[in-house]
Amino acid sequence: MSAPSLPFPSKRRPLSSLLAVLFLGAVVLSARVAEVRPQALLAPEALEHLWAFVRGMVPPAHSPAFLRSLLTPLRETVQMALLGTLLAAALGLPLAVLAASTVLFAGPLHEAARGGPLRWLARRLPYLLSRLLLNVLRAIPELVWALLFVRVLGLGPAPGVLALGISYGGMIGKVYADLLEGVDPGPLLALQSTGASRLQLVLYGWLPQALPNMLAYTLYRWECALRASALMGFVGAGGIGQHIELAMRMFAYDEVASLILVVFCLSAAVERLGDALRRRLL
Amino acid sequence: MFVLEGVGKTFANGFVALRDLHLRIAPGERVALLGPSGAGKTTLLRLLNATLRPTAGRLTIAGLDSRHLHGKRLRQVRRTIGTIYQQYNLVPRLRVVHNVLAGHLGRWSGWRAALSLLHPLQLDTAVAALQHVGLADRLWQRTDQLSGGEQQRVAIARVLVQDPAVILADEPVASLDPGLAEGIVRLLVDLAVQRQKTLVVSLHHVPLARAYFPRLLALQQGRLVYDGPPQGLSAAAWQALFAEAPLPAAAERAHVRPVTAFPL
Amino acid sequence: MRRHGWSLLLGLSLGALTVWSLLDTGLSLPALLGAEGRRQMALFVQRLFPPDLSPALLRQVGQRALETLAVSFLGTLLAVGLAAGLLGGATRTLVQGAAFAEAVPRGKLRRLGQALAYGSARALLTLFRAVPELIWALLFILVVGLGPFAGVLALGVHTAGVLGRLFAEVLENVDRRPCEALQALGASRLQVFLYGMLPQALPELLSFALYRWEVNIRAAAILGFVGAGGLGQQLFVALNLFLHQQLLTLIAATLGLVILVDACSALLRRLLV
Ligand SMILES: Nc1ncnc2c1ncn2[C@@H]1O[C@H](COP(=O)(O)OP(=O)(O)OP(=O)(O)O)[C@@H](O)[C@H]1O
Ligand SMILES: [Mg+2]
Fold it and tell me: Scanning every residue of chain B, which has its alpha carbon at the shortest distance from the alpha carbon of A10?
């Protein structure tokens, strides 16, 4: 059959080949910068270390005294995650209300809004400032925040809570704001026409509609917080991480094994619990 | 091509979709399948293309008992049967070209298939098939950008590439406007006639079926209530069929060919 | 009514847990935000200024930032590869032979094998993600020594656990009708995956991978705390040696890096998804 051999569509081709070249370049460059040496994984001494480690892990430490010593850090970990998430939600919610463009100036609710440049600015300034703040808060990793707070407040779970509250506050705030912006404006318009104030609109219109998704995301953050607070100990902010680092430094691999097992169980259990609660919520 | 002996299909939830079908479809025959919604047309076609298995009776496809088909043999049999669905049978995000070339999958190895996604293989077959359905210029377009009628023609192009011995079509025109519908049906019928393929089409539209098919089958509540030429049933009888009123008792024996005229 | 009871119970237990945690950790906001706490914070912030902007430090910071970027990128890439490798086992529809059409009832042994493959792939993914990246980093440092390579491996393994689960869920939820159509024309399991499942799922898979890259740039910035390269290492050192003025520079670099990756990811998402 004499079929004309049609060429590839020319429109997308430059973009995808450019992206492909950039991608390959990035891989090669990154591999050099990150000192990637796959052969190091199979080097004899690497395997030897690994073997020593694995042998040291069996059996995991399980003396009553050791297990008892885990109770406090475990409790601290759970408490830190809970308080940190609550703090984050408390911090994120007001910022989110300000950072949701539809609350202050955008969308059908504000079509009738008038005013000079000053009013215009007054509506946008809180939005811009809170978005900026949220971005900064969530851009700095929680462990860096923890490091800083440990320096200011000293060792213990308190800096961990603050660190979680601040960095997760940024993340929660941003997601809340996006959820608020996605709310169906119909009921809001109806409320507005009854003469409700802006605060009343937020309380009776925006929040109830976005609540299930907000709760679901908060729950997800709580799961992350639990994992993160298990690590806070690495920078001295309490919890189980401290013990892991210590055991690692003292080559007490059997203790490392038990500790990792504990973190694994905690993490897997929280994931299950989160899944179950979310199914109820959504 | 197909021989059904007392075939029944009961779904896992206990619903009896088809019962006691006796039917023989010879190679090269053109058959229209009619019946009200829920009568079991889709179920029957899925039995014929071996994506469902009968729960009662015996179904032979090209001389092979469907109960014993699995693995490679099953794939080989499926390759010889092309199916066109009412909708949703193309992969929306894939380009037209790949959807059409997917007709080769039964013959291609996994490697060939993977390679073709990066650089289309046997492109001429896809182009020829698309030319046949009048869509050659859409080769590189994304499939979900096409209209419903165009997508249906792409599906036909895929069957052309597949080049099966049997073409099954499940309400291929139900979501199209009447003008387009006739065009698609004619396309299928011409194809079957030219290339001597067996054609089984389920339709809602009685006039179309009567105009283009020498043999009609009617299903009602999972039973075969008519099997014969279009002239065998009056317009009123068809109307009664679609009103879901049970046909007169005589209709129950109708699957014994040749069919006598109905008392309506 | 029943729902209400549940919510009440949940709310009450949450409240009780909170009070208990507050009392137990001895955390009190008044103390933190009181005069003494505020003074401490102010003092600390004061010491951060002016930031150290000497060329030598900047060069070093730039290098570390690049290292962090590379670790996050390669870690995510490795994760995608590992996750993809496990997908055949972790996706129910794939394990069962892309069974969009009704299959012959398989033998018990075959079904047991499938269940085993599925179970072990899922268990492996759970193990990967339940152990945090910092702990994986400690393990890999033991094997390949200090440096960013250990960080790449750590991020890769942990993220593979997260992405593998997400990928499997996306693939299990694609529209099955096009897949059944492919199977009906004789496509094999691999072919149904390539032509039916993957094209449908690709945008979501990409979007998840990009999202994890955003998470991983933050993670890569702290991997240095345990010696796995990147900005974290310098941050840790600066803090422990009381080099407060370097600290601000380093934090600013972290901030810039994270914002850069977020922007890149957003751009790629717009271009590709
Ligand atoms: N997988 C299944 N499980 C249970 N019942 C099913 C299943 N598939 C179809 N059915 C039922 O079998 C009956 C026949 O379905 P079928 O799709 O064959 O009808 P149809 O004649 O094609 O109808 P329509 O014209 O609406 O497409 C319907 O009542 C349907 O609900
Ligand atoms: Mg149907």
Answer: B140
| A10 pLDDT higher than 60 | no
Which top CATH class is C50-272? mainly alpha
| Domains recognised in chain A with CATH numbers | 64-281 (1.10.3720.10)
Question: Which ipTM was obtained for this model?
Answer: 0.83
Indicate the pLDDT class of residue B157, thresholds 50, 70 and 90.
very high
Measured distance CA(B64)–CA(B55) in Å, rounded: 17
Among C184, C200, C203, whose Cβ lies nearest the Cβ of B78? C184
Domains and CATH numbers, chain B: 1-80+168-264 (3.40.50.300), 89-163 (no CATH)
pLDDT surpasses 70 at B211 = yes
Which residues in chain A have their CB less than 8 angstroms from residue B124's CB? 1, 3, 5
* Alpha carbon of A167 to ligand 2 centroid (Å): 53
Tens digits of residue pLDDT in A223-255: 889 888 888 888 888 778 888 888 888 888 888
pLDDT higher than 90, residue A276: no
The yes-or-no verdict on residue B177 having pLDDT over 80 is no
pTM of the model: 0.84
Q: Which residues of B touch C195 (CB under 8 A)?
A: 91, 94, 98, 102, 105, 113, 117
Nearest one of C206, C197, C201, C202 to C97, comparing CA atoms: C197
